[in-house]
Amino acid sequence: MDSLTVLVPVYNEEAVIDEFYRRTVAVCESLDRTQFEILFVDDGSSDKSCDIISGLIAKDPRLSLLRLSRNFGKEAALTAGLDHVDADAIVIIDADLQDPPELILDMLALWKKGYDTVYGQRTERHGESFVKKLTASAFYRLMAHVGRFSIPRDTGDFRLLSRRAVNALRCLPESNRFMKGLFSWIGYPQIALQYSRDPRHAGETKFNYWKLWNFALDGITSFTTIPLKLASYIGVFLAFGSFVYGAYVIVKTLIWGDPVPGYPSLMTVILFIGGIQLMFLGVLGEYLGRMFDETKRRPLYLIQEHVRGSDFRGSVSA
Ligand code: UDP
Ligand code: MG
């Protein structure tokens, strides 16, 4: 008999949990010879999400809840969940029903064929703004060019992982957890499952553009040092350009004399070089700041309680 854990990060999702539970349990119950568990990771919700989940657990022993001590972010919530599962197959799914739970059946079918990762790939993204689609597409294109391995386009965290894949993920200790990148980094046989992404069932997205921008920076800086190299190349290019221009100025002065023109060009060049220097100081800063985070070696999350429906041991503090 196979075991399946459905891992759900939850942050202020009171409006969708009941419906999510209803649909997901219906899917899981239709599986034969598979024992399942739904693990909610509460990422410090401040609404009634926790109460609703606790209420469900009291009725259904196949659920459990891992409560983090505060809001650590989705990546940390997923890490916490993955550290607490030991099923043969693990499905990560958002609570907001943007990823249809019905697809879990197809994912399991592919897993049985021997794939370690079955990732949902969005063919359409309903209910997302034009700007979000555009920025997302630009990000994937950029990552495809700069990464040492490719992150599949239009994939999110909705995916099935084998136990082997989860064990591999647990070995990655970094605190900048750009999960999409880590999922690809581990390798193993992977396959895409195409689906069209629904709009949110209820509630609002937790990711605004500022968060997404920082998320993209995390992705780029955790998986490539190309921005750093760019500084060297642009530096070489500018130095070479300056050398050629300098030679031209010397020759010109020797031939025609020097009537001291050129204030505008001088200003332009100084400001331009100054801008480039500041920009790359910023790039250095991005990497340095992340190194600072890594060297602190802080835990990625803290657990407030772990409520298991199956054994009714109640709250176990970690
Ligand atoms: N989420 C989380 N912690 C956060 C933000 C979000 O656990 O700090 C969860 C959220 O509850 C949801 C999933 O991550 O289950 C995806 O969030 P959302 O739907 O807001 O993101 P989007 O689909 O808009 O990218
Ligand atoms: Mg969503």
Automatic annotation (TrEMBL):
GO terms for cellular component: plasma membrane. It holds the Pfam family Glycos_transf_2. Residues 5-168 form the Glycosyltransferase 2-like domain. It is a multi-pass membrane protein. Its main location: membrane. Keywords: Cell membrane, Glycosyltransferase, Membrane, Transferase, Transmembrane, Transmembrane helix. The chain crosses the membrane at residues 230-251, 263-288. InterPro entries: Glyco_trans_2-like, Glycosyltransferase_2, Nucleotide-diphossugar_trans. It is found in: Cell membrane. GO terms for molecular function: glycosyltransferase activity. Belongs to the glycosyltransferase 2 family. GtrB subfamily. This is Glycosyl transferase family 2. It comes from Marinobacter nauticus (Marinobacter hydrocarbonoclasticus).
